[in-house]
Design goal:
Layout lengths: L6 H8 L5 H12 L1 H4 L4 H8 L3 H10 L5 H24 L5 H21 L3 H13 L3 E4 L4 H13 L6 E4 L2 H9 L6 E5 L6 H12 L3 E6 L11 E4 L15 H19 L3 H17 L10
Parallel strand pairs: 1-2, 1-3, 3-4, 4-5
Helix pairs in contact: 2-4, 2-5, 7-12, 8-12, 9-12, 10-11
Pfam families: HTH_6, SIS
Organism: Microvirga alba
InterPro entries: Homeodomain-like_sf (IPR009057), HTH_RpiR (IPR000281), RpiR-like (IPR047640), RpiR-like_SIS (IPR035472), SIS_dom (IPR001347), SIS_dom_sf (IPR046348), WH-like_DNA-bd_sf (IPR036388)
Length: 294
């Protein structure tokens, strides 16, 4: 049996195996999830024709601390489920033109929003810290943020910087533990909440490193940042088949930072790039618009 991923699934899975009284509690909750989130335990027990202790036994059985916790988790799961059900109804299945237009518009809107919110002073300070760093560490977890950390490493190594990227929560803490004064930590997070990123930021700061956070302003991570590059791209209406468009804003920040760092490290960066181009020419000859290792 697959482990249930939310409270509603937990109730659905265990309901058939429950004793009669607790099964009535499960069925009552599932029949009117929204109503259950707004009712008192006394009224709920009366409607289910069971005692309040029976209700409490049931909610603890499904991993809740009490009836209030049960209602809160039920409300959260119901809201998420309803959101994705609505999304499925709006999906234009097989309509390539509409899909392409929507993705294009979403990308351009995200880029415009991210550009309008750029803090030029913070961007300059971040680029200076990276260009002078003894070593640079790029970290992120989850979806786009982990990929962006890897992409930042891909942009910076070609300038001759000592740079590493990690999406491993344990390794992120270890990298922070061996940080030195003058190192730079670039931390990518859409929400600014993952525990490993907060821990790494706190540890790295304590070691004297500069922490550059690309995240939501007012997020927990932003409070740990030496330099904050605020990124607040409003989410598009939720569709399960459309990626989060915040990554377009993250890419804008990455490209701005890498371009600035390359300029700050001249003429060394130019010599490094020339050597990379020379090596690549040996692979497939000369082309006018050949990117440098992309």
């Amino acid at each position: 049996m697959n482990r249930p991923t939310n409270l509603i699934e937990s109730i659905e899975q265990i309901a058939p195996s429950l004793k009669k009284a607790e099964r009535r509690v499960a069925e009552m909750a599932l029949q009117d999830i929204e109503g259950t989130t707004r009712i008192s335990i006394k009224a709920f027990a009366a409607q289910a024709e069971v005692s309040e202790p029976t209700v409490m036994r049931f909610v603890r059985r499904v991993g809740c601390n009490g009836f209030s916790d049960f209602k809160l988790r039920l409300a959260q799961d119901f809201a998420v489920g309803r959101m994705y059900i609505e999304a499925e109804r709006k999906v234009h299945s097989g309509d390539a033109e509409t899909t392409a237009q929507r993705v294009y518009q979403s990308a351009t809107d995200a880029l415009a929003t991210a550009f309008a919110g750029l803090d030029e002073r913070a961007l300059t300070n971040a680029a200076n810290a990276i260009a002078k760093a003894g070593k640079v560490v790029c970290i992120g977890v989850g979806g786009s943020s982990a990929i962006m950390a890897q992409e930042m490493e891909n942009r910076l190594f070609r300038f001759g910087l000592s740079v590493t990227a990690s999406a491993d929560p344990y390794k992120q803490r270890m990298l922070a533990a061996i940080a030195d004064k003058g190192d730079a930590f670039l931390i990518f997070s859409v929400t600014g909440k993952p525990r490993s990123l907060l821990d790494a930021a706190e540890i790295a700061t304590g070691r004297g490193a500069t922490v550059i956070a690309i995240t939501q302003p007012q997020s927990p991570l932003s409070g740990h940042a030496s330099i904050l590059l605020p990124l607040a791209v409003p989410g598009d209406e939720v569709h399960f088949n459309f990626p989060n468009r915040t990554r377009y804003g993250q890419l804008l920040v990455i490209d701005c930072l890498s371009a600035l760092v390359g300029a700050l490290r001249q003429p060394l960066s130019a010599r490094k790039l020339h050597r990379i181009r020379t090596v690549l020419l040996a692979l497939h000859g000369h082309t006018e618009a050949q990117p440098i290792g992309d």
